[in-house]
Amino acid sequence: MNKSNYVLLASLFICQAFAQTSTQTPITLEQAITLSLKNGKEIKKVKASTEASKLQIHSAQNMRYPDLEVSGSYNRLFNGTDVNLKVPLPPSSGENQMPQVTPQHLMMAQAKANVPLFSGFKISNAVNQSKQYYALAELTEQSTTENVVYQTINLYFALYKTQQSIALLTENLKRAHQRTIDFEQFLNNGLIARNDYLRTQLQEANVELSLEETKNTLKNISTRLSTLLDFPSNETIVAEKANPVDILPTKTDDLSTRKDVQSVIKMDEIAQTTIKIARGNYFPSIGLTAGYSAIQLDKVIDITNATMVGVGLKYDLASIFKNRTEVNKAKAKKTEAEYQVLLVEDMAKVEIEEAYNAYELALKKNTVLSKALIQANENYRIVKDKYDNGLTDTDHLLEADVQQLQAQIDNMLGEADQTLTLYQYAYKTGKLLDNLQSGN
């Protein structure tokens, strides 16, 4: 048995051993997307962030409610405490002077409430800004979800193309190996020169090398996709041919569905609200105050049910000068946000245009590749007949074989890429999730 036979048997043994330790699990693209939405760790993380942003709204709304404080204290007084009453006590009977009083303790209890009436609109603007941040968090969640789904789609198509390439290379390797066996017999019978036999061995080795490199690529892609989907480690995903998404690519300037564009617009709104909050420091804070106090100075005085109500005013005069910097800083952030909107919109237009061009190119390439496959198959058939009849040499046969294999791989890749460009266009226009949901 020659070296090539040993290599083929070893490859078959390894494949069989791998098949025994790993279960082949076919899943569709739709199933892969569902798993990514269910198990995606990045999606779970951004959902938690959105929930935290939602709670921040309640935190801002709490500023509208009154502040209520309750305090109390008990103090032991040292000997020698002087008590001088502003209102003199009447002397005891038979005495011409006031009695000596030595208090032992002092107890105080107090309850205060402060209801904000006006704070320069800072509370209402803070609540409004918290709602804007929550809306931004929702957009971020949608954008992250769309990114994870698109990543899943790309990995799935990469897995499909790699698995199909392995199938084509494996089939070609079988043919190359059989050709090597036939040429070895021809060589032993003196029908061909030794260099013809060596060329067949070299081509078989080249195909085998390409197959091993493709298998390594398959392992890497499978690991990435399995990790993203949280797929069992003892199962191997087998990708199936995916159906195209229901969308018709057109040249459009509609950016309204792009989550990144919506996000920067929302950030511009937040910057405007920040200016309003900064300007609120120019105004005084007014609040309604109310309280209750109880005081007991041992042996001297008891004060209970001391209730009060009033209006409190607080105004920082220095803020007239200091706050100007904060307002100008907020305005600068607003200008930055406005330019960021323009930059993101320009980039979005470029990406949509490129996605449309990629789809147009895929259509044209597929037309050419389909013809090339027909031509390569016919060319190999003709060259094979000529070789069998002794009308051409080994070089032409091997060249025709390589051309046929390349045409088969290119045609398979072209069909997959055409479908993938539809998903890419849907993603770049911000309509990927909507189209997937409408298709289910």
Automatic annotation (TrEMBL):
Coiled coil: none annotated. Residues 1-19 form the signal peptide. GO terms for cellular component: cell outer membrane; efflux pump complex. Its main location: membrane. SUPFAM superfamilies: Outer membrane efflux proteins (OEP) (SSF56954). It is found in: Cell outer membrane. It comes from Myroides odoratimimus CIP 101113. GO terms for molecular function: efflux transmembrane transporter activity; porin activity. Keywords: Cell outer membrane, Membrane, Signal, Transmembrane, Transmembrane beta strand, Transport. Belongs to the outer membrane factor (OMF) (TC 1.B.17) family. Pfam families: OEP. The keyword ATP-binding does not apply. PANTHER family: OUTER MEMBRANE PROTEIN TOLC. This is TolC family type I secretion outer membrane protein.
